[in-house]
Structures are given as structure tokens and as C-alpha cells.
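Tutorial handout. Part one gives the primary structure; part two gives the three-dimensional structure as C-alpha cells.
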Amino acid sequence: MKRNHRLLGLAAALSLAVIGTASAQPPAHPGQYGCMQGAESDMGMMGGRGMAAGMMGRGDPAARMENRLSAMKAELQITPQQEPAWDAFMAQAKKQAAGMESMRTTLFEAKGNAPDRLAQRTQLMQERVAGMETMTAAMKTLYAQLSPTQQATLNQRFGPMAATRNGMPANAQ
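Part two.
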């Protein structure tokens, strides 16, 4: 019962956060609907990749996550003996990222009235909690295999102020 109240509270808080974020968006420029659209919005100065590609979700999230995991593995200096625990952690991180993409799609395409959509969000949040519990188990297994120096590095990456994205620290790029 206590867990259900926490999950419902989490779902309500996330719903309010989504509503607050949506209402805080600046109005579109004339000729554009909602977020910037068209190829020109992706282009940065000198024809390079602009901010919109990553910020607006047009980049490849799987590739970004793969890069973050590779950087983290290199920074931790994973040894051959630690590879099985690392591989299990990496597989779970990829599964979590795929689950988040699926959840975003489901929420974006949600149909029905407000109570039905809120019930659907609650269900998705319960699935997300279960996924994070599995991710925590994979992290604990990896952590137990690390040296004290590696643990300190990982502690810093997952410190109290580390912003996360897809279950991975955003600063691990």
C-alpha cells in the first residue's frame, strides 16, 4: 500500500513537471509550429550540427548512450576480470534506454480521457520503478567488482548532484 502511494505520488509529480515544462516553452516563431522544424533548425554555424539535433531529439540517442558507456568504461579502466559485471551493467543500461524511448512514444501517443491517460502513466511509472530496481542490482554487482579507486570514480559520476539521462550520468560524455 505504501509503495502504491509513493508510485502515485511520483506519477503525479512527473505529470506536473511535464505540464510545467510544456507551459514554460516559448511560443513558436512565425512559420514554425511548436518546436523548430525543418532541416535548417538542425544546422549550426558553418553548416555543422547545431544544438537542435541533440536537444530536440533528432540525434541518435542510442549512439550517445553508447559513447557515454564507452567513456565510462575507459575512465573506470575496466579489467578483463571485471568484464562480465560490466557487460551485465551495460546490457541493463541499454535495456533501460530502450524502455525510456518506448515510454516516451507511449505517452506521446496516449489516447483516451484524462483519468485513462493518468492510469496509463501510473502503469508506466510502475514499470520504470521495476526497471530501475533491476538497474540498481546490476550497478551493485558491478560496484562489488571494482577497486576502491574505481569505486571513487563511479561515486563521483553518480554523486548527489549528477544529472542523469537514461539511467546514465549526463556528464559521462
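Part three, for discussion. The first strand starts at residue 164 and ends at 165. Residues 114-145 form the longest helix (32 residues).
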